[in-house]
Amino acid sequence: MQRSKLLQMILLYPVFLLVSATILYPLAWMVYSSLKSDAAIFQDVFALPDSLFFGNYRTVFVEGGMGIYFRNSIVISVISVAGLLLLCALAAYALAQIDFKGKNALYLFILLGLMIPPQALIISGFKWIAVLKLVSSHWALIFTYFGWASFGIMVLRSFFQSIPKEIIDAARIDGAGHWQMLIRIMLPLARPSISTIAIFYFMWVWNDFIYPLVYMQDEAKYTVPLGIMFLNGRYRVQWGLQMAGLAVATIPPLLIYIIFQRQFIRGLLAGALKG
Amino acid sequence: MASSRLVHEPEATMPSGSAEARRTGFAYQARAWLLAAPFLAPALLFYILFMLVPMVGTLALGFTEWTGFNFADIRFVGFDNFAEMREDPIFWLSLRHNLVFLVGAITLKTLVALLLALALDQRIPFSNLFRGVFLMPTVISLVVVGIVFRLALSPSLGLVNPFFNAIGLPFLGGDWLGDPNRVLPVIILVDTWHGFGLYMFLFISRLVSISPELHEAAFVDGANLRQDIWHITLPLLKPTIAMVLLLAAIDSLKIFAHVYIMTRGGPSHASEVLSSWAYFQAFTANKVGYGNAILIVLLVITFILAYIQVTRFQPKEEY
C-alpha cells in the first residue's frame, strides 16, 4: 500500500504541476507584464520585470477611466447582490414555509429562469430597456440582475425546508409571526447558505459581459469587463496598459475566491444545476 | 424526512379534526395567498419584467420584420425569417460551428475533468491545494480570458509562437486566430481552460461519496488500481458522466463572449456561431426580426437539452 502511494505521487505530481502551470502561467504573465514598460515587453515577452513599473496602472486609472469602471462595477455589484439576497430570502421563505395552493407550480415557474440563456434575451431586452428609458442607466443592469433570483431561491428554499420542525414550532409557540420567524430564526441559521449565494452572485454580476455590452452605450457607464474590452481596442499596441487593466479586473473575483474557497466549493454544487 | 414531517405536523397535535377542511377552504387559501404575496412579489416582479418579458419579446420578434428604430414599423411576417434562414449560408455555417464547438468542448472538458478528478481522488498530499488551483479559472471573467489568450496567441509577439520557436518546433506556430482552420479548435481549447473546473468538481463530489469499503473489497480481491477504477469507480460514475455531458452541452451553446472578444466571428465567418451571427444581424445589419429568429433556434436547442437534464438528472431536491 505504502509503495503504491509513492508510485502514485511520482506519476501524478508531474501531471498536477503541468496543469497548474497551464492555469497559473497565463495569469502570472498577465500580472508581471503589467509591471513592465511596453519597451520591456516588446524586448522579451517572457522575461520577469527587472524593476517594478507602476506607470501602466497610473495611466489605466488616470487616463483610461479604470477608476470609473471600477466604481461602476462596485456600485452595481453591491446593489445587485444585496437586492438579490433580499428577494431570494423573501421568496424562498414563502415557498418553504407558507402553505398556499399552486406553490409547487410557482416554484417550477421560477426554476424556468435557470434554463434561459442570457444571450438569447439581449436583442429584445435592449428594446425593452429602451422602452423603459433605461438605456445607459445602471438600473437597467441592476434590475436585470434582480431577475436572476431563481438560483438563490432554489438554494435557500431547500435550506429553509431542512430546518428542523422543532425549532420552527418552538418559535411559533413563542408567538413569532412569519416576519419574525424569517428575520430572527431562519436568516441567522442560513448564514452559510447566504454567503455562498452572495459569492456566486458577485462573481456572475462582476464578470457579466453581455448585458453591459448591449445596455450601456455611454463610456462613462461601463463596467470593468466592458472597460477592459474598450481599453483593449484603444491601446491596441500598448500591452502593458492592457495587462494592467486585465489584472485590475481579475483581482477582486480572485481574491474573493481565495478567501471564501470553502463557501465557493459548497456553492458550486448548487450552481451546477444552473444549466 | 417524510416521516419526521408527519410526526411534527402541528395540526396533528391539535384537538379538533378540522385541519384538513380548513386548509382546503377558499377563505383559508385566500388568506394564505395574501400572506405569501408580499414575500413573493418583489422577486417575481423583477423575474417577470426582466427575464420573461425579454424572453417573450425574443419569441415574438422572431416572427416580425423590423429595423429596430421605430415601434410603428414592426411588421408581422409569420415564418418568413425561418425561410430566409434556410437560404442563409452563414446561418448554416454558424449552426455547424455551434455543433463542432459543442462536440469538441464537451469531449475535452469531460475528459480533462474526469481524469483530474480521478487523480485528485487518490488523495496524495497537497491534493486540496491543486484542486484550488484547478478551480481558479472558473472565477475569472470571460473578457479577461479572451483578451489574455488573444494576446498570448498574437502572431507577431505573444507567448505561444515564441514558445514553439524556443523548443525547436517553429513550424507549429502561426496566426492562431487568423487561420480559418485553427480558429475553432483554439477557441475550444480556451473554453476548456476556462470551464473544465466546474465539471471536475461535480466528479469529485460524486467520487467522495463512494464508500471506501468498495475499493477496499476490490483490493482484497486482488484488483490493482487500474481494475478498481475501471470496474468499480467508472460504473458508479456513469450517471454523473451523463449529467456532465449534458450540462456541458447546454453550457457550450452559451458561447458568445469568447467569439466576440477573440475573433468577432472571423476570419471570414470561420468562427461565427449562432449568437454572434444573431448579434450582428440585430445590431449591425439592423435586422432585428431575423436576429431574434436565429436566437429562437438557439433557445429551442437549449430548451430541449435543458428538458432532458431536468427530467432525467434532477431527482434530488437538496444538494
Description of the structure:
The complex is a heterodimer of chains A (275) and B (319). Chain A has 275 residues and is an all-alpha fold. Chain A is built from 15 helices and no strands. The longest helix of chain A is centred in the N-terminal third of the chain and has 33 residues, at 2-34. Chain A is globular and about 75 Å long. The mean pLDDT of chain A is 86. Chain B has 319 residues and is mainly α. Chain B folds into two domains: 2-61, no CATH class; 80-313, MetI-like fold (Orthogonal Bundle). Chain B has helices at residues 2-8, 19-24, 26-61, 80-87, 89-120, 127-135, 142-152, 160-166, 183-207, 212-220, 225-252, 257-262, 274-283, 288-313, and strands spanning 64-65, 75-76.
Q: How are the secondary structure elements laid out?
A:
The complex is a heterodimer of chains A (275) and B (319).
Chain A lengths: L1 H33 L3 H6 L11 H8 L3 H32 L5 H9 L10 H10 L6 H9 L3 H13 L2 H9 L4 H12 L1 H17 L2 H6 L8 H11 L4 H21 L1 H12 L3
Helix pairs in contact in A: 1-14, 3-14, 4-7, 4-8, 4-11, 4-13, 11-15, 13-14
Chain B lengths: L1 H7 L10 H6 L1 H36 L2 E2 L9 E2 L3 H8 L1 H32 L6 H9 L6 H11 L7 H7 L16 H25 L4 H9 L4 H28 L4 H6 L11 H10 L4 H26 L6
Antiparallel strand pairs in B: 1-2
Helix pairs in contact in B: 3-14, 4-14, 5-9, 5-11, 9-11, 10-11, 11-14, 13-14
